[in-house]
Design brief:
By secondary structure, this protein is α+β, with helices and mostly antiparallel strands. The chain has two domains: about 100 residues, Trna Endonuclease, Chain: A, domain 1 (3-Layer(aba) Sandwich); about 110 residues. Helix 1 crosses helix 3 and helix 6 crosses helix 7. It has a four-stranded mixed β-sheet, with helices on both faces. The protein contains nine helices and four strands.
């Protein structure tokens, strides 16, 4: 994911959050309303969100610090909304709020252990590829838990998290090199390439995950 993709995800998350807030207040809220759902003055423009109640109609636009400078049309949009009896609301979000939202969604140790129970079931069905991907998902989640315990950035990229394992003495140099090799297999699967996965590959990752969850 690149920088702009990150902020696009940020904006979508914020839109859904605002939608829920308006619905709690009794509004009918619609994300990216269709032509039939929009008032006539918006026939040529789809807002991020509209919220309608008996008392008022609101058009909401959500922009990040990245996309805001490209949105010179917003002042005209606000003026048009006001002329037609609508309230215009502009919400500017930022990376910090996005990082917090990701932190709120992180798995805790109990949830990681519960997900690990899927792996033996998949292996019984000979779904090695699926088991390997699940093993990596719990490994990454355990990495984030461990980094948080060490007061480090728990939402850094996967490669940074792995490097921190070695930097802080949580794995040996040979283990670190093996992790890199296993990561190559994982990436092959994720991106649709062939990969020969066996029990040893899966056990290696799950054993590391268990160790991370047990270490104090």
């Amino acid at each position: 994911m690149n920088y702009n993709d990150d902020f696009s995800k940020l904006e979508k998350h914020k839109i859904e959050e605002i939608k829920r807030e308006y619905e709690k207040k009794g509004y009918t809220a619609t994300v990216e309303p269709t032509l039939a759902q929009r008032p006539s003055f918006l026939k040529n423009y789809t807002p991020d969100l509209i919220a309608i109640s008996e008392k008022e109609s609101v058009m909401i636009e959500v922009k990040s610090s990245v996309s805001l400078h490209k949105a010179g049309y917003l002042s005209k949009l606000a003026e048009t909304a006001q002329k037609n009896g609508w309230r215009f609301e502009l919400v500017i979000t930022n990376r910090k709020s996005f990082e917090q939202s990701r932190m709120d969604c992180s798995l805790n140790k109990e949830e990681i252990i519960a997900r690990m129970r899927e792996i033996p079931a998949l292996l019984e069905l000979n779904y090695y590829n699926a088991a390997y991907l699940v093993s990596w998902s719990v490994f990454e989640a355990a990495l984030r838990v461990k980094m948080a315990e060490l007061k480090l950035d728990s939402h850094a990229g996967l490669m940074t998290l792995i490097k921190n394992l070695y930097s802080y003495g949580l794995v040996s140099r040979p283990q670190y090199e093996d992790i890199e090799k296993k990561l190559t297999l994982r990436n092959s699967l994720v991106h649709g390439f062939a990969a020969n996965i066996n029990h040893t590959d899966i056990n290696f990752i799950t054993d590391l995950t268990t160790k991370l969850l047990q270490d104090e």
